[in-house]
Amino acid sequence: MSARQPSNESAILNTDEPHPPEPGEPSPASAAPLFRSFWMGGYEGADHVNSRGEEVLMNRRSGHWERLEEDYALLARFGIGTIRESVGWRACAMAEPGAGMARVARTAALARKFGLQVIWTLHHYGVPEGVDMFSRDFPAQLAEFCDEAARTLKDSGDGPLSFQPVIVEDGPPDELIALGGVFAGLWKLQAEGQETP
C-alpha cells in the first residue's frame, strides 16, 4: 500500500492506487484466464415441448450426441478450448433411469479427453413431464436435479465446474425471479460450504 505525506506530516492512506500483490499472490498479469480460449463452441441443447406440442431435443436432432467425438475433434483443429453443453433436465428425465446422467458423464469424459473446458447449462427451456415451474414443489425438484448433475460432474474436469444460469436467452419475468430466488439460496448454501438439498 502506498501512503501520501500531506503538509501536516500525518500519513493518509491512498486508496486510488492499486496495492502490490502479497507474497505468493498472483499479479493480475499472471492470473489464469477465466476461459481456455477466446472463441467458444456451443451446442444447441433446447429440450422442451414447443407451442405445437412437438418434442424438441436439439442435440439429438442435430446428431451432436452421436457425434461428440467428431465434434470435439473439429474444435481442437480450430484451437477452441471452451464449450457450452446442456445437461438438459427434461432430456435426462425422459431417458431410462440413469441413462440421462450417463450421457452427461460420457460428454464430460470426452470433453476432458480433448482438453475442453465445459460451461454446463442445467435447464434449457424443458422441464420434465408433470413439473410445474410455479408450484411450491418446484424449488425442491430443481434443487434435486441440480444436485444430481453436480454429483455426476464433480470429478469430470481438470478445473472448477462452471454452470450457466438455469434460464437461458429469455423467459417470463416472473419465471426469472422465481428461479433467481431458488439459485440465490442454493449458491448461499454452497458458499457457506453446506450440503445443498
Description:
The protein has about 200 residues and is an alpha/beta fold. Helices cover about 35% and strands about 10% of the residues. It contains six helices and six strands. The strands form two sheets. The chain has a four-stranded parallel β-sheet with strand order 3-4-5-6, covered by helices on one side. It has a two-stranded antiparallel sheet with strand order 1-2.
Q: N-to-C SSE series? A: EEEHHEHHEHEH
Derived structural class: alpha/beta
Cα-based radius of gyration, to the nearest Å: 22 Å
Shape verdict: globular
Measured by DSSP, the beta-strand proportion falls in 5-15%
- Helical content, roughly? 25-40%
Estimate the mean pLDDT confidence: 77
Largest sheet: 4 strands, parallel
N-to-C CA distance: 43 Å
Q: Flag low-confidence runs.
A: 1-15
Lateral arrangement of strands in the main beta sheet: 3-4-5-6
Tally of DSSP β-strands = 6
Please report the number of helical segments.
6
Oligomer: single chain
Short note summarizing the structure:
The protein is an alpha/beta fold and 197 residues long. It contains 6 helices and 6 strands; from the N terminus they run E-E-E-H-H-E-H-H-E-H-E-H.
Secondary-structure map:
Elements: E1 3-4, E2 12-13, E3 40-42, H1 58-61, H2 68-77, E4 82-86, H3 89-94, H4 99-113, E5 117-121, H5 138-153, E6 162-164, H6 173-191
Parallel strand pairs: 3-4, 4-5, 5-6
Antiparallel strand pairs: 1-2
Descriptive terms for the model:
197 residues, alpha/beta, two-stranded antiparallel ribbon, disordered N terminus, 4-stranded parallel beta sheet
